[in-house]
Amino acid sequence: xxxxxxxxxxxxxxxxxxxxxxxxxxxxxxxxxxxxxxxxxxxxxxxxxxxxxxxxxxxxxxxxxxxxxxxxxxxxxxxxxxxxxxxxxxxxxxxxxxxxxxxxxxxxxxxxxxxxxxxxxxxxxxxxxxxxxxxxxxxxxxxxxxxxxxxxxxxxxxxxxxxxxxxxxxxxxxxxxxxxxxxxxxxxxxxxxxxxxxxxxxxxxxxxxxxxxxxxxxxxxxxxxxxxxxxxxxxxxxxxxxxxxxxxxxxxxxxxxxxxxxxxxxxxxxxxxxxxxxxxxxxxxxxxxxxxxxxxxxxxxxxxxxxxxxxxxxxxxxxxxxxxxxxx
Amino acid sequence: xxxxxxxxxxxxxxxxxxxxxxxxxxxxxxxxxxxxxxxxxxxxxxxxxxxxxxxxxxxxxxxxxxxxxxxxxxxxxxxxxxxxxxxxxxxxxxxxxxxxxxxxxxxxxxxxxxxxxxxxxxxxxxxxxxxxxxxxxxxxxxxxxxxxxxxxxxxxxxxxxxxxxxxxxxxxxxxxxxxxxxxxxxxxxxxxxxxxxxxxxxxxxxxxxxxxxxxxxxxxxxxxxxxxxxxxxxxxxxxxxxxxxxxxxxxxxxxxxxxxxxxxxxxxxxxxxxxxxxxxxxxxxxxxxxxxxxxxxxxxxxxxxxxxxxxxxxxxxxxxxxxxxxxx
Amino acid sequence: xxxxxxxxxxxxxxxxxxxxxxxxxxxxxxxxxxxxxxxxxxxxxxxxxxxxxxxxxxxxxxxxxxxxxxxxxxxxxxxxxxxxxxxxxxxxxxxxxxxxxxxxxxxxxxxxxxxxxxxxxxxxxxxxxxxxxxxxxxxxxxxxxxxxxxxxxxxxxxxxxxxxxxxxxxxxxxxxxxxxxxxxxxxxxxxxxxxxxxxxxxxxxxxxxxxxxxxxxxxxxxxxxxxxxxxxxxxxxxxxxxxxxxxxxxxxxxxxxxxxxxxxxxxxxxxxxxxxxxxxxxxxxxxxxxxxxxxxxxxxxxxxxxxxxxxxxxxxxxxxxxxxxxxxxxxxxxxxxxx
Amino acid sequence: xxxxxxxxxxxxxxxxxxxxxxxxxxxxxxxxxxxxxxxxxxxxxxxxxxxxxxxxxxxxxxxxxxxxxxxxxxxxxxxxxxxxxxxxxxxxxxxxxxxxxxxxxxxxxxxxxxxxxxxxxxxxxxxxxxxxxxxxxxxxxxxxxxxxxxxxxxxxxxxxxxxxxxxxxxxxxxxxxxxxxxxxxxxxxxxxxxxxxxxxxxxxxxxxxxxxxxxxxxxxxxxxxxxxxxxxxxxxxxxxxxxxxxxxxxxxxxxxxxxxxxxxxxxxxxxxxxxxxxxxxxxxxxxxxxxxxxxxxxxxxxxxxxxxxxxxxxxxxxxxxxxxxxxxxxxxxxxxxxx
Lengths: 328, 328, 339, 339
Ligand SMILES: Cc1ncc(C[n+]2csc(CCOP(=O)(O)OP(=O)(O)O)c2C)c(N)n1
Ligand SMILES: Cc1ncc(C[n+]2csc(CCOP(=O)(O)OP(=O)(O)O)c2C)c(N)n1
Ligand SMILES: [Mg+2]
Ligand SMILES: [Mg+2]
What we know:
The complex is a heterotetramer, with 2 copies of chain A and 2 copies of chain C. By secondary structure, chain A is an alpha/beta fold. Chain A has helices at about 5-20, 45, 60-70, 90-105, 135, 150-160, 210-225, 240-250, 265-280, 300-305, 310-325, and strands at about 1-5, 25-30, 50-55, 75-80, 115, 145, 165-170, 180, 195-200, 205, 230-235, 235-240, 255-260, 290. In chain A, strands 3-2-4-5-7-6-12 form a 7-stranded mixed β-sheet, with helices on both faces. A 5-stranded mixed β-sheet of chain A has the order 9-11-10-13-14, sandwiched between helices. In chain A, helix 7 crosses helix 11. The radius of gyration of chain A is 20 Å and the shape is globular. Chain C has 11 helices and 8 strands. Classes of the chains: A alpha/beta, C alpha/beta. Chains in contact: A-B, A-C, A-D, B-C, B-D, C-D. One thiamine diphosphate sits at the interface of chains C and B.
């Protein structure tokens, strides 16, 4: 084990996979100078401009070209810069990449990875802060991944690049500098398998991406109050790890879903509804979701903070669930 | 009361609102010849080509131009032809229309209506059959409407045109020829208010759009088995009528959400999760969702039918909920 | 400004009669296929929307004459002709229109999503202009793989007002990719005359403003299309980068079989009927000394084949419903949460 | 082909000294604003990303000199200069950068979403090229309302490779709308030299291929920009339909304050520094007989004003947090399901 940042881990994943498989290439704006966050630093020098391809500001064509390339034998890794800009390429992702294999009766596959940095990053405002993972989970054909640690950004990105499905890969901008231990050798995190980040008996917190860390902080605070929260980091949102979530909720009897995205029709609704459908009779208290209000993200910090799910807010919600249930 | 089809009712709504308010105009491909389904038949003759504007095949610009127009004093009604093509204009709708008022600190509003015909229509296949209402409900700033009857297509479209928010207005292609009674005089259906399409004491079916009709058929079949289903047609998905839904579920103790869309992360998850959160202790059986599998819609009828929620499937699910609860 | 050079028709030039007789056969097969597809729709056998290419056969035949089987082709919602000319199996195509087992896409796609990867046909597309960027990517992929397969992308005159036209052509030129763009200009986009919604001189000028050489050609003259396509494809193959061909033709039918096309002047249709690309080629060949009977045989053979295909497709079973759940993706259960 | 006619610089022509002194004042105000914005970001006062327009002031000043207060302007992520030149309140703008109460957008938008509808400034935009279609719509609206207000849309050289450039320009020409498109070409799109990603001769040729007259101008010569903008805007006002102005300038700073721009040759930057638009105008005016002291006063006034504004903005309170939930929409409760 050595330490890497989340950003460096993603970079290492791409380097390893590009070394392993000459069909893998990356395309996006400014990649030749390392990409907007430096995730691609040095890669053009390492692999040449053909495989680390600078592109015009043409999100629709970046995605469309990746679809065409993936259909014909190469394995593109698409960089969308901010997930918000992927909204310029939704037809290409949803009507084309996700459906092509099915529409064409399985004649080919579309093995591409779309990297979309998501989430709030101080004062990025409404067009650079969104988390739209629930959209992608709704689309047949797409895999959706949201890593939260350096080790997972290494292991999941490698698995995503090896997958034959189109994968929407959501890195969180606030996590770029996060350091953590990463295995030195080959490290593949399986897609579709959750990580129990913390064990606990009193309630299950299901979360993903940056909210893993807020949830773990909340769990510490809860522990001081005698409440042991189990924190399940989904890592992959589609397919999500039903077994892990259900097993945990069967044990604790309580489910709190914690997400950064807007709560209304967020992916937390899917988790909460699924648990409510399947485990109603095992619940000691009602399922509960935390997420952002239905507001665009504002620029001014005090306003932006109103869109944030914080450790305090998690702690409070979790405590209410446990206390309330005891009162019932 | 006289009878109109769903299509004619929408047409009448637009005519009435264009007569009432000279700032209202419509834009989209082929509108001068009545639009692809004939919803605009005769309107160019009535209002002239400036207000019933033919456009290039430029969905992004149709939507973007509507945003600019709505910001500056006119009230565009955008025709997207098939909701699938709106995926070519998502930046304009989500990053621009929905957020502009907020980002700009309330300096203006974006009063536009986007008409997006949705849903399965025999053998339209994967790129002409989608129902993505849950996406729009997730986006702060948007109103989402899904009429199911001629009277509602009249009254809701008129209300949508009068609203000062951007409204995503989802007409169902299979409903165009549906006939129904429509009031003769001015008829406005309020946004955000559900319609209890059928009363019942045993379970609540929450639904919208074409599934209202499948649900009513199922309710009849259930009645023959002694189960009285209450069918609540949401009509507006954002804001949805919590009061009506909660009141009904408090009465029946059972919630079945019926949607045509893919069930995973569909809007039904929001309804089911909300009810599970708020009314857990009032439920006689777990909440339940029906929706499409997570598959693209196929062309061949037997395959396409595998994506359909049918009256039989609804009846079966509802019966299981009622029977099961009695057994517990 | 409108600098597209014009290739004049082949009349008078040395004709390659075998080659053109082959083109005639292809055109008859397309015509027969489309006529039977229209009939099938009337009879409720062909489902969904059908966009016939009757009258436009010279574009498909003339372009594809110059392609290798392993070259790549991307098409539009009006793609039957292109697909046949590229060598796809007509019975599998008809089965696909009927939504039957053994269709090119197993009945999952239908007319607007026909693809046959075995012959390099990477798909029709239900979204106007969407295949332009996909084609750029396919060509990009060939470059990366060191392959000499070229890519051809056909789109309509209505597609040139969508963003992907700009983005895809710019991309192809920036990366100097081996692509031929073919604008199949049939004057209409659905019920709209495309010129009324198209600013400036048109597609060739737009391509040239992106540094892509463009040639305009009479799209109802297969001799001219063949010659122009050959020149453009030679340029693409020789590494000269993307090229564009603007083929001017006409959609004899309505936009779909459901469209009576009352917005058109019947005289306009009549005028174009006189310029029928099949009849014109036959005349050219006869003038060149071909025996009319030989040409009639091409026609007869095509209709006989397609009638058989029609019957065979009609007698084919529906696909197994399990197909609704296959080919979705490797990961995850597509039945999850289903009803 | 690359037919953009060139307007040569104003030197030698009859100068309107008052007008140009006003332009000088505007340019100094922009320069001062940007320098203070950069300082503010270093000090942690300006938040989010800041894209300075230092070196590009002549475009903003020269174009906006020709606009009425009620004309409409749409800008980019690099929009401070345009916004100031259009007449927005500089203190409100600085407050917006600091995220404070009384900002142009109440602190909700920040640098990339500055708008001031009172002076017809319809917004910066965080999405490259997005304002092009919005501008077309604003102009469309003016047409429908019978208004004589024209619309100006400024975008960068990187924006011309996105689809909305094609769709918006085509739209403007098809509907013959009163819009002036201004390409503010500062050679770079973020860290990339735009020409390396731009096929063909460039923006003017693309506009002309859409039937839109285009003029290229030295964007660091405000006299030339003013003259070219006046001519183009006269054409727009007189009903000649959309026009395009290609202003060639240079981004002296990095893309954002966080970008050291090491990908550039320092000699290139030096060369462009010598072509500083403010210095050039001052030289021109002095050569024309203006007193240097008067010109220095413009500078001093601008910095004095902006220093005061900086201090005032710094001393302004944060906005009330209730603002996070207002201006979202009329219908529905934005707090629904919140944490
Ligand atoms: C993005 C998009 N917008 C609209 C449509 C609906 N539509 C299908 S075909 C067509 C006309 C296309 O015209 P053209 O490109 O000239 O092709 P043609 O039908 O004439 O072959 C339209 C508008 C679509 N399929 N996709
Ligand atoms: C659709 C989209 N893609 C990418 C970006 C990221 N981005 C912001 S500014 C910029 C460069 C724009 O270059 P140009 O249009 O020349 O404007 P300049 O910054 O030079 O003023 C990029 C790529 C964005 N904001 N929007
Ligand atoms: Mg056409
Ligand atoms: Mg630039």
